[in-house]
Amino acid sequence: MQKRALAEKAARKRMLATVDSAKALRKAIARNLATRERLRAQRQAALQEKLKSGLAGQRIGKHVVPEGEIDVQLGEELSESLRGLKPEGNLFRDRFLNMQQRALIEPHAPNPAKKPRRKTKEYEKHSYKRFDRGF
């Protein structure tokens, strides 16, 4: 009887200790969740900022997304008026690089054009040329 009473008293004491620490645990969990949420929001904001600037210079897969090149005309190439100004650059290349930077198409290394192979030369042997002999 006494052992049972001591066991119940010990169990009650443990339960009261856990009940008292429940508020402290709840506060600690709330602080932990708040810090996690703040860090997640910071990471999300950093990712959005990175995506605004584009993927230029970043490595995706095997290849690096190329950065856009700025076409500039030198002082002697410039004309006196805007009417005489020559267009500079390649519109197709600019749009292609822009789509790679916006992650609409995957980056890849430029594929150089294949060189045409030379035709093989055919030679006739001298023994084949002696066709005037009669058999």
UniProtKB/TrEMBL annotation:
Q: Which GO terms describe its biological process?
A: ribosomal large subunit assembly; rRNA processing
Q: State the Gene Ontology terms under molecular function.
A: 5S rRNA binding
Question: Where found?
Answer: Nucleus, Nucleolus; Nucleus, Nucleoplasm
Q: Name one GO cellular component term.
A: nucleoplasm
Superkingdom assignment? Eukaryota
Q: Does the keyword Nucleus apply?
A: yes
Chief subcellular location = nucleus
UniProt keyword Nucleus present: yes
Q: Enumerate composition-biased segments (Basic and acidic residues).
A: 121-135
| Record key words, sorted | Nucleus, Ribosome biogenesis
Q: Where is this region: Disordered?
A: 104-135
Q: One of this protein's Pfam families, by short name? A: Nop53
Q: Which family is this protein grouped under?
A: Belongs to the NOP53 family.
Q: What is this protein called?
A: Ribosome biogenesis protein NOP53
